[in-house]
Amino acid sequence: MNDVNLDALKDSPLFHGLAAKEIEFFGTFLAQQQLSAGKTIYIENMTGESLYLIKKGSVRVSQMLAEGEEQTLVVLGPGDTFGEL
Asked: For residues 71 and 57, what is the distance between their CA atoms, to the nearest angstrom?
């Protein structure tokens, strides 16, 4: 077992309805990361290789506009997921 807190998985809508044994199985494939505020995690059109479950804090999903400005599409928080499915 790695350092992933299985309670975070149990509380996630993505894993809702799974038995404890199934959640434990998925937990063996996950790793916990702590990222710095303002860090870019993913850039549009980049090949996705990870699925993220937010345990604490928030993630701003944005899009670059032609004018060079950034437009916020959504802000995700604890329990939300994003990335490669």
From this structure: 20
